[in-house]
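// run 5 | inverse folding | seed 20
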């Protein structure tokens, strides 16, 4: 059980797959009451079955983060059953973020503010610290999330609510398959694009990095648990050795030096297309 008084109920968006699922299971095993929210009925059913088999205090909730009404209904359901949300893990997506109460957490924040305690974990990425070519859209969303979280951390400070960034590096999850499906419509265009060599090099580099990574979703979940249970949590927690390298690289190296390292890794040379 947590060493933070009153931290007992956890709502995890994107909690039925990947990092969110690993966190949901770990937190429930530690005695937290967990509501794992997700859109897929199949994944919710699978997680519910595991919870019943292991007799865990975990249940799933239907939630489509792109639908405001769905989000309000999910939060209302959790509040009606648990009475309060002590920890919100914002894991499911980047579009559903916003002072930030007025946008994406409209339903969850008021109850946390009234109780003047709680924790919010925002799932970012090393892509929110450094950007590589072919990852502009994803990386820009994570940079935006970093800025949004920095604002939210200060907005919540007077109310006693801790807001914490979690920054994983390469971890093999279902996200890679989802990304492939989302970009499948562009597959043929990528092959004939002026950036075809870049796409191929990036894909090979990312595949190699994931293959070498020994960090699992369960490892990330343990870092998230530390962030929840720390008496004085840090504003951000890196996950994987890559996260540590990127963090210090951004602090110690110039932008030109970082660009040079990225170009070398991907074999990018001026004038060579």
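// decoded
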């Amino acid at each position: 059980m947590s060493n933070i008084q009153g931290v007992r109920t956890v709502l995890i968006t994107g909690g039925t797959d990947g990092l969110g699922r690993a966190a949901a299971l770990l937190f429930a095993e530690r005695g937290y009451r967990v509501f794992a929210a997700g859109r897929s009925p199949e994944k919710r059913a699978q997680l519910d079955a595991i919870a019943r088999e292991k007799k865990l205090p975990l249940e799933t909730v239907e939630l489509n983060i792109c639908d405001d009404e769905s989000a309000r209904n999910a939060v209302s359901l959790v509040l009606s059953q648990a009475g309060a949300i002590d920890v919100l893990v914002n894991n499911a997506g980047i579009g559903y973020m916003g002072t930030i109460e007025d946008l994406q957490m409209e339903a969850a924040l008021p109850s946390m503010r009234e109780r003047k305690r709680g924790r919010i974990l925002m799932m970012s990425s090393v892509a929110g610290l450094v950007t590589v070519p072919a990852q502009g859209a994803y990386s820009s969303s994570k940079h935006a999330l970093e800025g949004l979280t920095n604002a939210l951390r200060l907005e919540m400070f007077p109310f006693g609510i801790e807001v914490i960034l979690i920054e994983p590096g390469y971890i093999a999850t279902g996200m890679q398959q989802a990304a492939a499906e989302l970009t499948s419509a562009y597959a043929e265009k990528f092959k004939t694009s002026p950036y075809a060599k870049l796409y191929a090099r990036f894909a090979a580099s990312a595949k190699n990095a994931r293959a070498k990574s020994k960090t699992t979703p369960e490892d990330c979940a343990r870092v998230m648990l530390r962030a929840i249970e720390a008496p004085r949590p840090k504003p951000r927690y890196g996950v994987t050795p890559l996260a540590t390298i990127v963090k210090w690289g951004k602090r110690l190296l110039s932008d030109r030096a970082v660009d040079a390292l990225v170009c070398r890794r991907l074999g990018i040379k001026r004038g060579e297309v």
